[in-house]
Write a structure and sequence with these properties.
By secondary structure, the protein is of the alpha+beta class. It has 3 helices and 5 strands; from the N terminus they run E-E-H-H-H-E-E-E. Strand 1 and strand 2 form a beta hairpin.
Length: 142
């Protein structure tokens, strides 16, 4: 082992090496920090040229080609959705929800002159089953 003190290449402190060959850093943390700093500097030097707009771009980065590509992608996505997604798996529209509400409204008729149950569920006449039911989840839209 050597008795000669070396200077850390990261923090500049003097240290006694613990290995046979010359160590460049006094500790593992200095070695890792030096590597990270070197890597950041390398990335920064590579990225300096990327901030300049190229010849085909405008100042704000929007081009007619980019707009066309976005439009084509949107059309392709919508066509793909209409072809590959089954009708029952498509999202509901306002019209679908209104039709459903109308069907429920045709089946269940609110009985206005009958008191609600103890839990607050109003009474409805079910036109399909031909009996009185108490439903808590139905809104009173009629």
């Amino acid at each position: 082992m050597e008795n000669h003190l070396y200077i850390c290449e990261y923090c500049s402190k003097k240290y006694l090496p613990r290995r046979r060959h010359k160590q460049r850093f006094c500790s593992n943390s200095c070695r890792v920090n030096a590597h990270n700093r070197k890597r950041k500097l390398l990335l920064l030097s590579k990225n300096k040229g990327l901030n300049k707009p190229s010849d085909h771009q405008t100042k704000n980065g929007i081009t007619w080609g980019g707009i066309g590509n976005a439009a084509i992608a949107n059309v392709a996505t919508e066509v793909g959705k209409s072809i590959f997604i089954k009708e029952e798996n498509k999202p509901a529209t306002k019209g679908d929800i209104q039709n459903l509400a109308n069907k429920i409204g045709e089946r269940y008729i609110l009985i206005k002159n009958m008191d609600a149950r103890a839990d607050g569920a109003p009474a409805y006449f079910d036109t399909t089953l031909k009996e009185i039911v108490h439903l808590k989840f139905l809104p009173t839209w009629k």
